[in-house]
Amino acid sequence: MPKVVYLFGAGINRGISDHDGVVPPLATDLFVQALKMSRLGDDHYLEKITPVFKYIQKYWKLNREDLENNHFDLEACYTLLELQLNEAKASGNHDDIVTLQDTVLKLTILFAETLQEFEHSIHNSNAFRILGEIIYSENADVLTFNYDTLIESAIESASRVSGSAPPTYRGRPHESGEISAEEIRYSHFNWNRPLSYGVKFDEVMLHRAGISTYVDGERFL
Known about the structure:
mainly alpha; two-stranded parallel sheet; two-stranded antiparallel sheet; 9 helices; 44% helix; globular
């Protein structure tokens, strides 16, 4: 039987919404979606990303209200920021470097925190639950251009929670400090996300509660 491969773009996430009815953003409506959220649309939060609004106002002549109601090309914004940052570095303009880096950081934080708001929304989407079950049942490969891990969460959910942990797993470091091969491969779900990416990691975080524990990627096979 031929191997099944799914290719997903950002539009796949429109099958999800949060409790406010907000959907995951595309490259053109980050602000439209983010500013609808009760936490991210709060004035106190938005004050923290003032440099982003000032930058967009300067080069696109759009204020916060404009961004809240109209599409804005996020890719174009990042492209201009990168070009200006490279120029500032080449000319050794320290003040511009600091300002531009701060703007990039705050824009990226907004982007990441907007996506994070949907991390558990897959459980409220019947379509996404079915999609995860299809992918898992077919043992299909997935190619996605998204920056989030919503597809991964759907597959984990479809695989169900692992019913048993290896005998050596204690949820805390072993007294001897040794980490068994069984624990390294252990996952809370039957589908082990890090093992499924098809790439080798330098380090991998174990499924342990409490303090994060990492092992050398060479052992994670």
